[in-house]
Amino acid sequence: MKQFFTFLSFFCLIVIQSLAQKNSEVFKTLDTELEKARVELKTPGFAVAIVQKDQIVYAKGFGFKDVENQVPVTENTLFAIGSSSKAFTSAVLGVLRKEEKIDFDERPGKYIPELRFAEPWMNEQIIVKDLMAHRTGLPRHDFSWFMFPSESKTELIKRIEFQMPFTGLRQQWYYNNWMFFLQGEIGARLTGKSWEQNVKELFFDKLDMTRSNFRIPDMEKDGDKSFGYSVGLEGKTTKMDYYNIAAMGPAGAINSSVSEMSNWLITWINGGKFKGEQIIPEDYVKEAMSAQMVVAAGTPSEEHPDVQFSNYGYGWFLASYRGHYRVEHGGNIDGFSASASFFPTDSLGIMILTNQNGSPLPGVVRNIVSDRMLNLEPSDWLGETVKKLEEAKEAQAKAKAAGDSTAKASLTKPSHILMDYTGTYEHPGYGKIEIDLKNDTLFVQTGLLGGFLEHKDYDTFNMYLIYQGEPNKDNAFPFQFVSNMTGDISGLKAPFEPALDPIEFKRTPKENELSVDDLKKYEGAYLLMGVQEIKIYIKEEKLYAFVPGQPEYELVNIGEHEFNLKVLEGFKVKFEEKDGEIIAVSFIQPNGTFRGERKK
Fold first, then answer.
1. Number of helices (H), then strands (E), in the chain
2. 570: alpha, beta or left, given left = phi > 0 and alpha = psi -120 to 50?
């Protein structure tokens, strides 16, 4: 009997060694295939990890985390994971629901009392589940946070009231980062801790994710971190600055490695458990990876008849991949792309992180690995993607050639001198745009990004962003300036949200600082139309106009002898000078211009 058990143990050891050797051979050929994908897709570097049940069976880095110094990526290299962060944000609410602190069928305003949406029906009917499944009727409004970032959660909450919907509630799925910001804030209100603290205490600390973090300074001081890069269609690699997502963190602020993110996937594969502890409530896990909203038709294509349906759960996309149920979420943020995916019925998880901006590599690698690990006949995912990139490159070249051949100088002129377009332009759902004139060019500054204007036609200018230190001449935002009843530039319209009409920003002219001595020359009494006397005087170092029977109006200097009435849009006064003396004033308003001569 002892000999039998010795033989059995020996036999088991041989089987285990054989399986390990087989896996080793599989992964050895996988190494070659993944490196080929990196080279052909011109990706600087990436890391991939594969988990089965509760084990990491493969983890490796490819290429370079620091291209300039040729420093290799490892399985422990930190990358920005972008929107792969969203599943963490929603899962916080899943834990709080288990603790009976939140009801997913309640209005979000119950937890954030000051929250207001743009339409009454939104305030009355939107529930927490709608935030989690991108089904509120709101489009992305991404430029509201990307171009106008803020560390103030209060300010961001206020902006939501002025962001218009494009459809009704639950009528159409539409990705929206703002609603994940709100989920993070709901969790913070319920626990009294920040979103970062909630994610760290509920997940990072329990999943041995000791180096994962939320802020650029923490990323920068880590010894094994990746820089981010952009790669043009021609293959040119350019280093990018890290993007500070600020208070929008719950939508995509996490930095992590494939080795630590593997523990996150293991938890989901095992019904919310990690090392025997229930980290995420099991009922929430099932609900989050079940269809809550249809994303698109998701019908099979001719090339891939076995890849179908496209739904969304809570922070996860859902699809059928060649007969296997796949749960996945990508991530994109300046210089980085990601994919976190798992197949719950196959106990398989795949994590890919790369330092290439807007990269196709995570999807290609995910599918290559899926085919191997699920024992499927391999598809040529890499070849298909390379072909599409070549077609995009050709299309871009043709478009540029066509644009160059038809490009011509505008035959029209702006209706005003360039100085008249300067000022502060503001929209309460977005932020402030500053436009200044320097050396005959109008320059633009938002909360974060700069740019410049190039005249296109009449009062329409193309706005080119200066992004990552370079002007983006391939994409322009047309800025259409609008005038008020008196002919002054009163605002601009910009197509910042494709699902809606252009967003209109209201203009406030630049105020010129004049000394009291400069203002004194305007003081005096003026006889308006030879009948009514009005007074111009200085009070508290500011110039005021007083018309009998009306309140006094503060005057704001916007140009030589020209002032706006501070509290009345479309009303201004202009003084006349002769032989160095002010002799008259004109009140210019929508219903006409009224002149008054200065009394001697």
1. 14, 32
2. left
User: 147-167 pLDDT, tens per residue?
Assistant: 999 999 999 999 999 999 999
Cα angle: 68, vertex 73, 74; to 5 degrees: 155
Task: Give the end-to-end CA distance of the chain in Å, rounded to a whole number.
Answer: 128
Q: What is the pTM of this model?
A: 0.87
Beta strands in 393-476 (DSSP E): 423-427, 431-438, 441-445, 450-457, 460-467, 470-471
Taking the C-alpha atoms of residue 447 and residue 192, their distance in angstroms, rounded to an integer, is 29
SS3 per-residue string spanning 172-197 = CCCCCHHHHHHHHHHHHHHHCCCHHH
531 is written with which tokens?
């009948």
pLDDT tens digits, one per residue of 549-560: 899 999 989 888
Task: Return the bridge partners of 509, or none.
Answer: none
Q: How far is it, in rounded angstroms, from Cα 107 to Cα 124?
A: 7
Residue whose C-alpha is closest to residue 156's, from 126, 197, 134, 185: 185
In this structure, the strands spanning 441-445 and 277-278 are unpaired
Token look-up 């004194």 returns 520
The length of the chain in residues reads 600
Which of 546, 582, 581, 585 is closest to 563 using CA atoms? 585
Query: Cα–chain-centroid distance for residue 74?
Result: 28
